[in-house]
Amino acid sequence: MNIRPAEDKDRPIIADIHARSWQENYRDYLSDDLLDNRLSEMMADRWANMDIGAQDIVLVAEDDQVQGFVAVWDDEMPYIDNLHVSSDCRSKGIGRKLLAAAARAAKANGRKTIWLHVVVGNDRARNLYTRLGGVPDGVEDKDLYGTMVPNERILWRDINILAEQSN
Fold it and tell me: Could you tell me if 89 and 20 are in contact, meaning their C-beta atoms sit under 8 angstroms apart?
């Protein structure tokens, strides 16, 4: 498996993986109409038009094809906005590798901490983040395309904890 910076040609597959992940994992939180009828087009548009800054980090994991991606928006405290892995590629360490690579890139940008939100009830993802050293840091509602969904903030106060995750 190779982890590399995303290229413009990757945007459609990133959008597809993103939409399918939400369709599989957010059924209890978002409407069937959104997930089944509108989300794929919304994600395609979002990723086609996404302004990715020079310090932002978007990485893909690929073997013969893209299997997952991570997107981190750079700020004083970088925000991991997305981590999604194709359902047939889960539980193979891809998410962990993507997160560690993103943390190393953020560290190279001079950042010392990193954080993300996880939907409350998404225990599989939350367990991954806490196993990788993330610390729960409160719950807040987040607007997901017009639906307020409780999200738990997970924080790595020391980015090295995440950056140093091994295979």
Answer: no
DSSP string computed for 103-118: HHHHHHTT---EEEEE
Model confidence band, residue 166 (pLDDT cutoffs 50, 70, 90): low
Domain ranges of the chain: 2-163
Q: Is the pTM of this model over 0.90?
A: yes
Tokens 């369709």 correspond to: 23
- How far apart CA 30 and CA 35 sit, in angstroms, is 7
- In the DSSP assignment, the letter for residue 7 is -
Q: What is the DSSP letter of 75?
A: S
Pick the CATH number of 2-163 from 3.30.200.20, 3.65.10.10, 3.40.630.30, 3.30.390.10: 3.40.630.30
42's CB contacts (< 8 A; 6+ apart) are 19, 145
Q: Are 52 and 58 in contact (CB under 8 A)?
A: yes
